[in-house]
Amino acid sequence: MKDITESRERLSGIFNITVTPFTADGALDKAGLARSIERVIGLGFDGILIGGTYGEFPAMSTDERAELFRASMDVVGDRVPVMLCSAGSDARTVRDLTQLAGDLGGLPMVTPPFVSEVTDGQIVAFFKEMAPVSKTGILIYNAPGIGITLQPDVIEQLATIEGAVGIKQGDLSVTPIDRIANRLGGKLKLFCASDLAFLGPMMAGFDGISSTNSCALPELILATYRALEAGDARTARELHQVWYPFRALARKHGQPQMVKLAMNLRGFDGGHVRSPLRDLEGAAVEEVTAMMQALAADPRSMVTLA
């Protein structure tokens, strides 16, 4: 993408949150990353997200994140839009990665800074500082997982910032979703941040979703989204129910640990997680393996195991 206008035009649909495959010694597996990107593009995903929270960016140095950005964009080119997570607690790091992301043709995804007792006014000022840095604009990520949940009134302030292209909404409570959809729809692109419960936000009028679990279940989650997109809510609901056992274990064991294990069971390039996360072991592996075998036995899932 070359500018903010193009970012706004292309930002919609289902984006795969590509996990970062690490080797057993913690190195970035660029070949595995490339294969993962090619898989989801080949299946017809509308875009990808690189280096997000489930891409384990907090466990990576700034130089490693820049390397991940470049390696990913080298593979993607301009075939699909790419969100590049430039979040961080140090505004200098965020600025550098945000500028790099835009220069590479990606859309920087920025969260509120990870600092204690930051005020709403300081958060708004932070985003106003970052938006002009990127020639492609910024995607604002409301990420409760980092300890800060942006309230709808703050989001509405952020929506007025020149260069703000969209909101990736991680707070999926009904009232904020309803307000955001009806007050900001058409002004910003609205993305549901979780595939665990995306049917509601999409029915409310959101423009798209981002999905980590589609690294392991790309065919099924893509088919679910396409059914909803086509207005076939019954099929979307039925397909979403097919992978409830997967979602239940993802909540129990954590993402991206379980997603990477499930990918590896399918012969995909999940690789390893990086400390402080730990690869699943023992009984957890047995539990996930049994669940994946059960999914593979259901033709609706489109799952095959290695």
Low-confidence stretches: none
Count of alpha/pi helices: 13
Percent of residues in beta strands: 5-15%
Q: Which CATH-level-2 architecture?
A: Alpha-Beta Barrel
Mind telling me the CATH class?
A: Alpha Beta
**Percent range for helical residues?**
40-55%
Mind summarizing the main beta sheet?
Answer: 8 strands, parallel, barrel
Separation of termini?
36 Å
CA-based gyration radius: 18 Å
SS-derived structural category: alpha/beta
Order of strands in the sheet with most strands: 1-2-3-4-5-6-7-8
Task: Please give a quick description of this structure.
The chain has helices at 4-10, 30-43, 62-76, 91-103, 120-130, 152-158, 174-184, 199-204, 218-229, 233-242, 244-253, 257-265, 282-296, and strands at residues 13-18, 47-50, 82-85, 107-110, 138-142, 164-169, 189-192, 208-211.
Structure description:
With 306 residues, the chain is an alpha/beta fold. The chain has a single domain (4-241), classed as TIM Barrel. It is 46% helix and 12% strand. It has helices at residues 4-10, 30-43, 62-76, 91-103, 120-130, 152-158, 174-184, 199-204, 218-229, 233-242, 244-253, 257-265, 282-296, and strands at 13-18, 47-50, 82-85, 107-110, 138-142, 164-169, 189-192, 208-211. Helix 3 (62-76) packs parallel to helix 4 and helix 9 runs antiparallel to helix 10. The mean pLDDT is 96.
